[in-house]
Amino acid sequence: MVGPRLVAELLLALPHGAPAVDEPDFARDMAPLLRDSCCDCHAGKEPEAGLRLDLVSDEAGARATAGVWRKVRDKLRRKEMPPPDAPAADATLLAAAQRWLDARLGAGPGAWPLDPGRVTLRRLNRAEYGNTIRDLLDVSLRPEERLPADDVGYGFDNIGDVLALPPLLLEKYAALAEEIATAALPGPELRASKARRVEAEAMDSTLPDRYGSDLASLYSAGAVFTTVTLPRDGDYVVRARMSGDQAGPEKCRFTLRAGAAELERGEVACERPDFVEREWRGALHGGAQKVAVAFLNDYYEPKAADHGERDRNLLVDWVEVEGPLDPFPPTRSEKRLFPCGAGHDHVRDCAPALLRQLASRAWRRPASEAEVAPLVALVDDALAQGDSLNEALRLGVAAVLVSPRFLFRAELDPRPDDATQLHPLTGFELASRLSYFLWSSLPDDRLSRLAAEGKLADAAVLADEARRLLGDARASALVENFAAQWLQLRMLATAAPDPTLFPDFDEPLREAMRLESELFVEAIVREGRPLATLLDAHFTFLNERLAQHYGLDGIRGDRMRRVPVADPARGGLLGHASVLTLTSNPTRTSPVKRGKFVLERLLGTPPPPPPPGVGVLDESPAAAQALPLRERLAQHRADPGCAACHAKMDALGFALERFGPTGLWRDQDGPHPIDDHARLPDGRDISGSSDLKRVLLEDDALTRCVAEKLLIYALGRGATDDDLRALHVLVDRYAGRSPSFEELIVDLVGLDAFRRRRGEAPPASSPAKESR
User: Fold this and answer.
1) What is the CA radius of gyration of the chain?
2) Could you give the CA distance from residue 578 to residue 495 in angstroms, rounded to a whole number?
3) Average pLDDT over residues 390-417
4) Residue 163: which of 127, 135, 115, 116 has the closest Cα?
5) Are the CB atoms for 323 and 276 separated by under 8 Å?
């Protein structure tokens, strides 16, 4: 059998010609390090960490496994390999290997070419759907609230491969399209005046008996009422036909009400069979309105000599609401849809142009005449059948919104089956990538115009547009949809601290925790602060409830406001109650969850899933009293299958132990004093959150992690090995400094992965493997 060391030596003996001294060469530069320091562990059928390095013999083989060498370079850069318990690598061999890795994985003339990859046809997720409807039609509906939650892939809910369209969801889209079209184009029912009369026998009463089949007899201090649905806010007349059984010194008195408001108060002087109509004119809100007539001055004297003077009753025959009486102005949606003037006869002639303009905006690229023709025919047929213009146009609008051209973001390949054909995105495809990245919505008029003019192909123009979109209020979607998922802030909604142990935790506190982190990240994005501010900030956002939770005075009211942070341990995300709560268990902190959060969300190095059969930590009260959490976790780590991952996670989590399960600072955990010292896998000792933040900011791992998460979110797919190589080159350009979100985003949209794509590999081939 040929051993791994002999395999590595054979690599050196293979003929490779005579490369120039400065030209990188695998056999000369990389193979010696593999022979001396790597192949003893990373070779054979069961290599360490599943990484096998003994199968590559030349440059072609190395190129085919580019992702492996990216991981090797990362380990060497972090000085994680060779491990501390192994002999140190020869400095000369290490330098040569690093030169080869930097050359092949870099951006110079010796670098391997990058594949921009491809993106699966993407359905709009529910946030994108709601934002797109808002910006397209300016309706007040929030249709996204009626859609189910989207599946998540790679940590985000905008990943093309998981955004399926099952039949039930398609039915939901069809129903929503009709509802949205009706809201955008109200029909005659909102403009025509209509009388809505309700007879007394059909009305409800506060009294148990009516004493009359066609009249409501209010024999005591009671009322009759009904609910009418008004089409819109406007001017209305409310009438009531009444009479009275008069008795006593006063005439029958009444009040006419709509909802909680009193419309009219007066008296009814007549007696049956005579009736009088009383009315009120004024403004009412649209929607369901409860209209009531109440009897105010009941009188009953059973011993009166005159039988007609014994009982005073109010009789109600009917109630009527007429309106709206005022002209109905065009809605915001109509103004947007009808540039030639809503409500005019000549709008009918504009229908084809209107539908083409709407379809082009909704489909995010020019709609052809052939695509618009069926929409026009649909509207013409409805008009021929007597529908009003708005009713007919609703059909066209609904058809636009239920079209796959709207529900999906399509990027077309000239040769979709040829994975070797790389091509730039069209201007409209690039505009959609940019706007949905930063706004979670469709391109605005300026971005669409630049796309039509072909100017987005200019990298400088694209960079300027990225900066413009980031400065717009709609860029808050980047925090709501990217940051909230990257930092797992959405999981705070399901956090459930034990109410017995944490009785002060309530919904206002939960909401304030979430808002603190979201406003904090948004400030860093909008103010151009370096990414390092995420971990080491001197400001945050608090209201009175959250300030009390932190033990701070001087902040009053529910409004979140910016405040300075004096305590360095509290500054930054790792001091936010949101992060500390969602990474805790209901009854205690979890160094494992907190360490995993740091590795996965801030360093981009998630631990592997736990092996099957891993033991469960003893959570009984007796165990918690007997041993501190640190010692119980140490017993758990004694299992060799758990030790490797827990050595990383637990150390990072222990540094945050002074923050309790809901983020409160503490010195004791029950009977046990807090110990927040930790030893990192590389042998460094840290103490507390301030030391942890310092270590996290010593290299560019945070920048690389944020860059990778942003690219995944922007592209709607996992990062390939070539993507990660491109990100390494990009981050290296920052030369160890921390860029701002804006700088990083502008650089990301300039990458080939964002601006270009390729076809799909034939079924017999394997696409680029998605990797972390």
Assistant:
1) 35
2) 10
3) 91
4) 127
5) no
Q: Report the alpha-carbon distance of residue 164 to residue 147 in Å, rounded.
A: 13
How far apart, in Å, are the Cα atoms of 706 and each of 128, 381, 432, 739, 748? 22, 53, 22, 11, 11
Q: E strands of 221-301, at which residues?
A: 223-230, 234-245, 252-258, 261-268, 276-284, 287-295, 299-300
Q: What's the pLDDT tens digit per position in 686-710?
A: 999 999 999 999 989 999 999 999 9
**Spacing of C-alpha 198 from chain mean position:** 47
Helix ranges (DSSP H) in 14-53: 31-33
Domains in the chain (CATH in brackets) are 4-105 (no CATH), 194-323 (2.60.120.260), 330-409 (no CATH), 490-696 (no CATH)
Omega into 327 within 30° of 0, i.e. cis? no
The one-letter amino acid at 734 = Y
Q: Which of 573, 517, 610 is nearest to 696 (CA)?
A: 573
- What is the pLDDT confidence band of residue 5, given thresholds at 50, 70 and 90? very low
For 206-223, what is each residue's pLDDT tens digit? 887 765 568 999 988 889
Higher-scoring residue by pLDDT: 217, 541: 541
Whole-Å CA distances, 554 to 35, 74, 540, 663: 65, 47, 15, 20
How high is the pLDDT of residue 723?
A: 93
More confident residue, 109 or 663: 663
DSSP annotation of 223: E
